[in-house]
Design brief:
The structure is a single chain. The protein is elongated. It is built from 32 helices and no strands. The longest helix is centred in the middle third of the chain and has 18 residues. It is 71% helix and 0% strand.
């Protein structure tokens, strides 16, 4: 900027001394800097300073405060991320603690820009007070400010956390919303490393979270339980919960849930917690906490109300090879009943039931048990474990005896209800992951023709689902050469090929 521009800026700042006249010079400053190149503007801003603009925030008139914020933001935007914090640390600390939420938002935005670009842009020893001030804003009444504070505090360098976690405890003295914000930060930090997970625990946060499960505030209770579930989904988190002795405490709450007047509301949250851990460590956790198994299987006794949650949980456990072995063992024991027969009966009677969503869960449950592709630890090549092959075939055959299971599945895939048909295709895809499944499809009259018939599907989801199955079958040894040729042609054409579109394209080419 020219010397004349710099002098203009000084003059506008002098005019800010009279509060009633401030809007005019503030607007002049805004006009002066808005379209100036950053390099020119920064020189003048640094030479003259921003203190007098910051002082304009100390008034009750909201429009004046908003205008002063707008001017400061224009000035700040001329700087590279982090430079405002470095050059005006004192001002930023003041802005972070300002009574007006728009001011706090502007300050947190500046800190966020720096941390988002590079965690180490602001050295911890020099700027730890800034990070502490931001961490305390997780309690802010302005949701935008609180959410930005959560993002910042969740993504600091590790060396910041001993001090930040100590000072953030103030959040535990506030309301339920503030506590949940602090707990969310704790879960985010804990996911980074086992050391940080232990650090969070050493400050008492994990104990606090577990104690909150005594709350009669259902929304708060479920929010804390959801965060504990996220913590348990992380290897660091589940390790800490086991070491801390938290799982027996939560198991006790699950057992006592039967007599809790809020049972119906709390049930889904506890089921999700159990399924999250049981999915990853089925035998270890379910053998150690048999009350979890009883809790899961209660859904079969309850009937339709809790059955979808039970089926989803058992299906998630059954997606892994270890989970399949575990479910096979407890089903064989028989003292918990036969969930497969119950679920198969429910599927066969689908047309007589009004709760279509439950029957879809039942089909998806079978699909999860039979599929071997969803286990991240399973081998992606080579033969499937013969025990798994035999057990999945046995489970599928239990779906129906008259008509045969494959005929029942064929009927589901052709059903007029789109969501039901999609569930059937998911089960068919699981079946086709096995040689015995490919052979069943090959021997079922009309099944391959149905898959190749594009006119039977009107939705993108069903077209893609059938296409994925055809791709799988195109490599099968269960079909003769002519069928394989047709399958491969379909694969080459893609899921959304149509003869009419081809004809139009050819006519346009001519």
């Amino acid at each position: 900027m020219t010397a004349q521009d710099t002098e203009q800026f000084r003059e506008f700042l002098r005019q800010l001394q009279r509060e009633e006249h401030r809007p005019t010079p503030l607007n002049e400053i805004k006009n002066l800097f808005t379209y100036k190149p950053a390099g020119e503007a920064i020189t003048t801003i640094r030479d003259v300073g921003i203190s007098k603009i910051v002082q304009c925030l100390n008034v009750s008139e909201k429009s004046h405060v908003d205008l002063a914020c707008e001017v400061l933001k224009i000035c700040f935007d001329k700087f590279e991320p982090g430079e405002v914090i470095k050059n005006y640390t004192g001002h930023i600390m003041y802005l972070l603690r300002h009574e007006k939420s728009c001011v706090r938002k502007m300050a947190t935005d500046e800190v966020f820009k720096a941390v988002a670009l590079d965690q180490n842009l602001l050295p911890i020893p020099q700027f730890i007070d800034v990070f502490v001030a931001v961490a305390q804003l997780v309690t802010d009444t302005d949701i935008g400010v609180a959410n930005k504070a959560i993002l910042i505090t969740s993504n600091l360098p590790s060396e910041a956390y001993p001090k930040v976690l100590e000072e953030m405890k103030i959040a535990l003295e506030y309301n339920a919303s503030s506590k949940c914000n602090a707990y969310e930060v704790i879960v985010n930090i804990s996911s980074k490393s086992y050391e940080l997970c232990k650090l969070c625990n050493s400050h008492g946060y994990i104990d606090h979270m577990i104690s909150e499960l005594q709350s009669d505030d259902v929304s708060f209770h479920l929010n804390v339980l959801e965060l504990l579930t996220r913590l348990a989904a992380n290897p660091h988190g589940i390790g800490l919960l086991k070491w801390q002795g938290a799982l027996p405490k939560i198991t006790k709450l699950i057992v006592e849930l039967e007599h809790n007047r809020l049972r119906k509301l709390l049930y889904p949250g506890y089921m999700k917690f159990v399924e999250t851990i049981a999915h990853r460590y089925p035998k270890e956790m379910l053998d150690k906490y048999p009350a979890w198994v009883d809790f899961i299987f209660e859904g079969f006794e309850d009937g339709k109300t809790r059955l979808p949650g039970t089926l989803d949980t058992l299906g998630l456990i059954g997606t892994t090879i270890e989970g399949k072995h575990y479910l096979a063992s407890i089903i064989a024991e028989g003292h918990l009943g036969d969930p497969l027969s119950y679920t198969a009966h429910f599927i066969r009677m689908r047309n007589r039931h009004l709760i279509v969503g439950t029957t879809i869960c039942a089909v998806n449950f079978f699909a999860s048990l039979i599929s071997v592709d969803k286990d991240p630890n399973a081998r992606r090549s080579g033969p499937v474990d013969p025990r798994v092959t035999n057990k999945t075939k046995e489970w599928f055959m239990s779906l129906s005896s008259t008509p045969p299971s494959i005929e029942t599945l064929f009927g589901i895939c052709k059903d007029n209800y789109p969501e039901w048909r999609l569930a059937g295709l998911a089960l068919l895809d699981a079946v086709c992951q096995h040689q015995w499944g490919e052979e069943l499809v090959a021997r079922t009259a009309g099944f391959v023709e149905y898959l190749l018939d594009r006119s039977t599907d009107s939705t993108k989801e069903s077209k893609e689902a059938k296409y994925d199955i055809i791709k799988r079958l195109a490599n099968s040894a269960a079909f003769d050469a002519s069928i394989i040729t047709r399958l491969n042609t379909h694969v080459e054409q893609g899921p959304f090929y149509s003869e009419s579109a081809l004809e139009v394209a050819m006519e346009e080419g001519d």
